[in-house]
Automatic annotation (TrEMBL), chain B:
Keywords per UniProt: Cell membrane, Membrane, Transmembrane, Transmembrane helix, Transport
Source organism, top-level taxon: Bacteria
Alphabetical list of CDD domains matching this protein: TM_PBP2
SUPFAM superfamilies registered for this protein in UniProt: MetI-like (SSF161098)
Organism: Posidoniimonas corsicana
GO molecular function list: phosphate transmembrane transporter activity
Protein's recorded name: Phosphate transport system permease protein PstA
UniProtKB/TrEMBL annotation, chains C, E:
Name of the gene encoding the protein in the UniProt record: pstB
InterPro entries to which the protein is assigned, alphabetical: AAA+_ATPase (IPR003593), ABC_transporter-like_ATP-bd (IPR003439), ABC_transporter-like_CS (IPR017871), P-loop_NTPase (IPR027417), PstB-like (IPR005670)
Annotated protein name in UniProt: Phosphate import ATP-binding protein PstB
Record region (Disordered): 1-26
Lineage of origin: Bacteria, Pseudomonadati, Planctomycetota, Planctomycetia, Pirellulales
PROSITE patterns: ABC_TRANSPORTER_1 (PS00211), ABC_TRANSPORTER_2 (PS50893)
From TrEMBL, chain D:
GO CC annotations on file: plasma membrane
Keyword Transport attached: yes
Gene name in the database record: pstC
Transmembrane segments: 34-56, 87-116, 136-155, 167-185, 284-307
Protein name per its UniProtKB record: Phosphate transport system permease protein
InterPro entries the UniProt entry points to: MetI-like (IPR000515), MetI-like_sf (IPR035906), Phosphate_PstC (IPR011864)
Organism encoding this protein: Posidoniimonas corsicana
Length: 304, 339, 285, 315, 285
């Protein structure tokens, strides 16, 4: 029953002059950077940005407790259903791309690139490769030591979906960690290791890691700002989203904030290590927002 | 009979060797503890050192080994910018730019949290301990409560977070025959909710430590007091509690430490990472030091890792200041009582 | 060894002749009989868990008299004494049968307030148990919990009670020192002073002079004499001369039973039971 | 000799139970007792709340997953496509990490407590104890990072662990983390053993070892056990350090060199992760929580039974 | 009150005539002089923090003799006794000056091992302090930590020591009960038995009979007599008759000073100092 949750809504979310954002920890740096710049512009609004995970954020969003939800994946049908139940209407804006880097140890002198198929061989749940030589007989007969993000993260979902072909379909005998820095440490410390994680972690640890090219069918491409933005690094670049409650959007400070977000997203996402969305997506975002803003005042009485 | 005090039989010599060895072992254990502590602190301090280095020093250090960089670091340390940055770290809020980020809202959030947590958990915890040790007659009920408390200590804090979300942040609707009841405080995602949740987390520590301290007070003291016509409460308040105070303080110290370092339940009850103002009331939204630390430590940028270490030092400083009072009380009273 | 034959009496009378001459008169048989019963115990049985410590005790403690309990170690004196202010309540697994009436009210009745009871029936324990606080705090504890606030008044009480317990001049300069830093005998006297400060009607003293030198003992005995006009006193002692000197009535316990009780003079000179005689003449065990 | 202590007394209460003063006092005492009772009640309410939350949700979970599978399956993979809900790997993970942590922390902690209470000078004691308590306040992420960057490599080279994430390094850091709890609480109880007992033993020609091991520790046993229990609880409940150090891979193993996931680590993983609420992997956290609750309860019942049997009460 | 004039001696001799006749002979002056000094104390000053408790004590405790310490409460007897087995080491802030020689070895020397010292110099404390263990465990604690393993041997020791401390028949059926469930006097005797079990060369007893009835007291006194052929005994007592009965040498303390020490007979019959005379005749304070 939504009644009590709606009650707390009044206590926090809808408080005049406040904007509350929560959700994905992947998107958090972008939202936080925007929020900070927004505050620096001189605003009275109290802005808070949390990082309780996409799942956690969605739960609050569906309950109408927050204005904006950061998400490192699209909203799930079940979550959309919840929103509908609670009368929460929203718009989806994609704010950046996160390139997933596939990396090996710098001492690894045999492997420079992998095809999607080879990656699938490594990561598929049934009968995956155990040795490097299982992938390519020229490669050493060494154990294949795999590192990857925690199994309840958007990165894991996205990687498995794109590589294996089904979300969450993955071998389980790899070393998962909830902290990507730990994955860096792991790959950096083992010659036979291979791992995947957000591109930003590679950027900051270039000297400890070796980046692999991924061949999605059109030849191997290494991830970079450019290759992700021009969509040549396929298929391992995932979109990051924010979901905005349209009822909140009618509040001037939220509207102002979201507009500011769209203006700054390109610059700031780059600064925090993500890739800005291409122009066509940006235009799409602008249109969506415009529509919502135009509709918002008319919708307002109904939403209350 | 033996004539010299040092002339002794084999057995005695062996026993003394055992005893000496035991002493050495215990001292070794203590040394080990201290070593661990020093190791951890040193690691943190070394990592934190780079947090406030000015941009240009950082650039200078690029590609140099630790030893080579020592000179540059030292000179940076004794220059004004280093300390200016240290100051802004304390008074500024979080930022995506490592050279600008600070922990001010987190410090205040944490202070509010532990202050309120101590306010709730210490009286309730000591009260419960007194009830169990001094008042409750040995019974099934008491055993049950006792078991309960020991159990609560083992519940992972995240579960408290889920509970706190349900009853402090929101409210649960219970469907009962006589109608629906709303159970909970519906406080929202504010400091008060966080503090109440943390209070539940640390309550078992306070209770169990206090119980042990109460148990250690000799029964003859209680008898003496009763025989002088003191009531149960007078006996407890004037004799038993003061005598048990040092031990209780230990519980309080451990509880505050725990509350200060806890992050998971706070995320559950709605602590945030970024907040653009300093919390001023129990009804503010909040962030806390451990959250800031977690977040920075998980950031890809290594500059943030140094900031995380610096924030740890701040957290420890807060902790030490909070503990100092409790330690003083413990020392002050502990000195006087030697049964 | 000439001292051996120096009778205790002589030492004491030598000490403070005038006082002794005035007050060291034990109650006569008539007086004793006329005294109202302050405490009457009937058919008292007491158990520690399954083992019985007291068997069917019947005894009357007359008002304004000193009653002494004597008997071999472990015979149940302390146990009985502790029954009279319900101190045994504090030991788990104890059980009591029978009646103990204080001014004809049953002290074990359900609605009795033990605090009032213990205020009226004070106690000095066999093993001294000072609080781990200052000497002063120890003495004024009773009045303080009874609501006395005035510093002056408390100081007055402290001085008076310490004086009476023959401790004042030894501790007057160190009233704020910890009571645990006192010698054994000093602690014992402190506990006596502390009990006096609550001004009870009945004072139970379990070997109050066991750790005391003759001079202090004699001062405590004087105190007992002095107090008995206003209080009722029960004292456990192993020192038969002491029992003889201070008490009006003596009760002899043996293996949990009250063998004989009566006027002190009579009991010592003319015990009606063989056991008593054996004990007091030392032909025992 | 007139005594002011006596003359100024208010009129004595006539009987033992009448009288306004006694009634007021009884009322006052009653109120206090009631307040204290409420304090103790808070803990009961908390438990009730927790049990309720866990029960309601885990019942829903068990509507989708059979209890038999939950208890007997040897695989735990709710976050994979091929979902299995066997609690055993998580249980083993918890057992390994907690057991290891206690094996490390209990001897070191007790040794330190004994050193501080029996050997050290007051100055040393009053410096070292608060210092060690700082260990309790270091946030667990620090321990996690230290485990992976410092301890794991050592374990890897010395003992040949496969992964850098392993139960052993998690045990070690959790052990460090719970040290102050054991040290501080045990030291308190050791020191509150009356001096008279120490004197008695020393006067019988006992060495410090004899006194400590045969008199002081037994007399303080209930407190020591309590402190260790509290530490066990903390170890069981600890999450972040464990998630970082032990990895997040649920393996059914008792080999400390392998990577494991604990029950609490799973709860944290899901509750701050991506899983939408209502999904079975989300509901599973309550079933896991329930299991944890029952486990600690069993442990506590056992411990209380032991304490009752071994307790020596001075006085 | 006829009892008052009943000399203590009479009671005691009445108790066990043969034993007394045989052994109750105190050492003669010659014997005393001939005894090797077991402990010699010279220029001993002792401080609790800043307050001095003992002033310039010089005393020799002869071997195989009983030395009694007497003096008013708080005069420093226990403090002195505790110096002799370095029990005062355990109290923080204490300081000692001067020499205490045991068999001509300085017990305060740096290389002295306190464990060996305390094994050789046993002690019974003023306030009984049984371990919170069973009665049996209490008694056999000393032998057990000294390495005795054999159950039979330990039982034997326990029986023998409890018998000697006049406790055996009271506790033989409850050896496994907690020692804390004993009466005050029983606890005191238990502590004596416990000290005997370690078989020390010197036995320091701080008022060993303070909580005991005459019969038990007399048994303990017999024990002391019996032991002195093999041990050296120092006893603190407030009971001057007791000092006179059991000791060969008596030392009188007053306000931290050793006023006078000498052969017991002489000290009591012919004290050389006025203070001593006042004290033993009760003309004191
Ligand atoms: N721990 C202590 N700290 C400070 N002063 C103490 C301590 N113990 C004893 N004293 C003081 O030292 C003096 C001598 O004490 P001691 O215990 O030796 O007396 P005692 O002769 O044994 O007396 P008693 O017969 O009453 O036991 C006393 O004035 C006492 O108050
Ligand atoms: N707490 C207890 N639990 C069990 N038995 C006890 C307890 N206290 C005393 N007893 C036993 O009860 C009996 C009577 O003890 P009590 O203390 O009354 O003796 P007492 O006459 O005071 O002896 P004393 O003169 O030695 O103090 C003794 O046999 C004793 O062992
Ligand atoms: Mg007694
Ligand atoms: Mg003494
Ligand atoms: O926090 P995430 O939802 O992005 O994993």
């Amino acid at each position: 029953r939504p009644a009590p949750e709606g009650g707390s809504d009044a206590a926090t979310g809808s408080k005049s002059g406040s904007i509350s954002i929560d959700g994905s920890s992947t998107v958090y740096p972008v939202s936080m950077a925007v929020a900070e710049e927004f505050s620096d512009q001189g605003t009275d609004a109290e802005v808070t940005v949390g990082f309780s995970g996409t799942g956690g954020g969605m739960k609050q969003f569906a309950a109408g407790e927050i204005d904006i939800c950061d998400a490192s994946r699209g909203m799930k049908p079940a979550e959309a259903e919840k929103c509908k139940e609670n009368g929460v209407e929203f718009i989806e804006l994609s704010v950046a791309y996160d390139g997933l880097a596939v990396v090996v140890n710098p001492d690894n002198d045999w492997c420079d690139e992998l095809t999607v198929d080879q990656l699938k061989q490594m990561w598929k749940p049934e009968d995956p490769a155990q040795k490097w030589s299982d992938i390519n007989p020229d490669w050493p007969e060494e154990d294949l030591v795999l590192y990857g993000p925690g199994t309840d993260s958007g990165t894991f979902d996205y990687f498995t979906e794109e590589i294996v072909g089904e979300a969450k379909a993955s071998r389980s005998d790899y070393a998962p960690s909830e902290d990507d820095n730990m994955l860096v440490t792991g790959v950096a410390g083992d010659k036979n290791a291979l791992g995947y994680f957000g591109f930003a972690y590679y950027i900051e640890n270039k000297d400890k890691l070796k980046l692999l090219g991924v061949d999605g069918g059109d030849g191997p491409v290494k991830p970079s700002m450019e290759t992700v933005m021009d969509n040549t690094y396929k298929p391992l670049a995932r979109p990051l989203y924010i979901y905005v409650n349209t009822a909140s959007l009618k509040r001037p400070e939220v509207a102002k904030f979201v507009k500011f977000y769209m203006d700054q997203a390109a610059k700031l996402s780059k600064d925090v290590g993500y890739v800005p969305v291409p122009d066509d997506v940006a235009a799409e975002n602008a249109a969506t927002l415009e529509a919502a803003l135009g509709a918002a005042p008319a919708k307002a009485p109904a939403a209350e | 009979m033996t004539d010299a005090l040092s002339n002794e039989d084999d057995l005695l010599r062996r026993r003394k060797r055992v005893s000496a060895m035991f002493g050495v072992l215990c001292a070794g254990a203590t040394a080990l503890c201290l070593l661990i502590l020093i190791g951890l602190l040193a690691t943190v301090a070394v990592n934190a050192f780079d947090a406030f280095l000015p941009e240009q020093t950082r650039a200078e250090l690029e590609g140099k080994s630790t030893l080579e960089g020592l000179g540059a670091r030292t000179s940076a340390f004794f220059s004004a910018p280093y300390w200016q940055r240290g100051w802004t770290f304390l008074v500024e809020g979080p930022s995506w730019r490592p050279e600008k980020a600070g922990v001010n809202p987190a410090i205040f959030g944490s202070l509010w949290l532990i202050g309120l947590t101590a306010l709730f958990s210490v009286p309730a915890g000591v009260g419960a301990a007194v009830y169990l040790e001094e008042y409750a007659a040995a019974s099934r009920w008491k055993q049950l409560v006792q078991l309960n408390i020991a159990n609560l200590a083992g519940v992972p804090s995240i579960v408290y977070g889920i509970l706190g979300l349900g009853i402090f942040v929101r409210a649960v609707t219970l469907q009962a025959p006589g109608g629906d009841y709303l159970v909970g405080l519906s406080l929202g995602r504010v400091i008060l909710s966080g503090a109440l949740t943390l209070s539940l987390v640390v309550l078992p520590i306070v209770i169990l430590a206090s119980q042990e301290a109460l148990r250690a007070v000799p029964r003859s003291i209680r008898q003496a007091s009763y025989a002088l016509g003191a009531t149960k409460w007078q006996t407890t308040w004037r004799q038993v509690l003061p005598a048990a105070l040092p031990g209780m303080m230990t519980g309080v110290i451990l509880a505050i430490s725990r509350a200060l370092g806890e992050a998971a339940p706070l995320v559950a009850v709605g602590a945030v990472g970024f907040i653009n103002y300093t919390p001023t009331s129990p009804y503010s939204r909040f962030t806390a030091l451990p959250l800031q630390i977690f977040n920075w430590a998980a950031d890809p940028k290594p500059e943030f890792h140094s900031l995380a270490s610096a924030a740890i030092l701040v957290l420890l400083a807060v902790l030490i200041m909070m503990n100092a009072a409790a330690v003083w009380v413990r020392y002050h009273y502990g000195q006087r009582i030697r049964w | 060894m000439s001292i051996k034959t120096l009778p205790a009496e002589q030492r004491n009378t030598g000490l403070k002749p005038p006082r002794v001459a005035q007050s060291r008169a034990s109650r006569s048989a008539d007086e004793l009989a006329a005294s109202a019963p302050k405490i009457s115990v009937s058919s008292l049985n007491f158990y520690y868990g399954s083992s019985q410590a007291l068997y069917d005790i019947n005894l009357t403690v007359p008002e304004h008299c000193v009653t002494a309990f004597i008997g071999p170690s472990g015979c149940g004196k302390s146990t009985f004494l502790r029954c009279m202010n319900r101190m045994n309540d504090m030991i788990e697994g104890t059980r009591l049968e029978g009646d103990i009436l204080l001014d004809s009210h049953d002290i074990n009745a359900a609605r009795v307030d033990v605090v009032s009871l213990r205020k009226r029936v004070g106690m000095v324990f066999q093993k001294s148990n000072p609080f781990p606080k200052s000497i002063l705090e120890n003495v004024v504890y009773g009045p303080r919990v009874a609501g006395e606030r005035s510093k002056n008044r408390l100081m007055e009480i402290a001085e008076q009670c310490l004086e009476r317990a023959a401790l004042w001049h030894e501790v007057k300069d160190r009233l704020n020192d910890s009571a645990l830093a006192l010698s054994g005998g000093q602690q014992q006297r402190l506990c006596i002073a502390r009990a006096l400060a609550t001004d009870p009607e009945v004072l139970l003293m379990d070997e109050p002079a066991s750790a005391l030198d003759p001079a202090s003992t004699s001062r405590i005995e004087d105190l007992i004499f002095e107090l008995k006009d206003r209080y009722t006193i029960v004292i456990v002692t192993h020192n038969m001369q002491q029992a003889a000197r201070v008490s009006d009535q003596t009760a002899f316990f043996f293996q949990g039973e009250l063998v004989e009780a009566g006027r002190t003079n009579e009991l010592f000179t003319n015990p009606s039971k063989k056991q008593t005689e054996d004990y007091i003449t030392g032909r025992f065990g | 000799m007139s005594s002011p202590a006596i003359t100024n007394e208010p009129a004595r209460e006539a009987s033992l139970h009448s009288g306004g003063a006694a009634r007021t006092r009884a009322l006052y005492e009653g109120v206090i007792q009631w307040v204290l009772w409420v304090c103790a009640g808070v803990s009961v309410l908390t438990t009730l709340g927790i049990v309720l939350v866990l029960m309601v949700e885990s019942l829903q979970f068990f509507r989708e997953v059979s209890l038999v599978e939950f208890l007997t399956s040897t695989q735990w993979s709710p976050t994979f496509r091929d979902k299995h809900y066997g609690i055993l790997p998580l249980f083993c993970g918890t057992l390994l990490v907690t057991g290891g942590a206690i094996l490390i922390a209990a001897p070191i902690g007790l040794g330190t407590a004994i050193y501080l209470s029996e050997y050290a000078s007051p100055g040393v004691r009053e410096t070292v104890k608060p210092l060690l308590e700082v260990l309790a306040g270091i946030p667990s992420v620090v321990y996690g990072v230290v485990a992976v960057t410092t301890i794991s490599p050592i374990i890897k080279t010395w003992f040949g662990a496969q992964s850098i994430y392993n139960a052993a390094s998690a045990s070690i850091v959790v052990g460090f983390m719970i040290l102050p709890m054991i040290v501080s609480l045990s030291e308190d109880v050791l020191r509150s053993v009356p001096r008279a007992l120490r004197e008695a033993a020393f006067a019988l020609g006992a060495t410090k070892f004899d006194v400590t091991v045969k008199v002081i520790v037994p007399a303080a046993l209930s407190g020591i056990v309590a402190s260790v229990l509290l530490a066990v609880s903390r170890a069981i409940g600890e999450t972040m350090a464990v998630t970082l150090a032990a990895g997040a891979q649920p393996n059914l193993t008792l080999n400390p060199l392998e990577s494991v996931q604990t029950m609490t680590a799973y709860i944290v993983q899901i509750s701050s992760g991506d899983a939408p609420s209502g999904s079975p992997e989300y509901k599973a956290i309550f079933a896991v929580g329930m299991t944890l609750f029952i486990t600690t309860m069993t442990l506590n019942v056992l411990a209380q039974w032991i304490i009752r049997r071994m307790r020596e009460q001075y006085e």
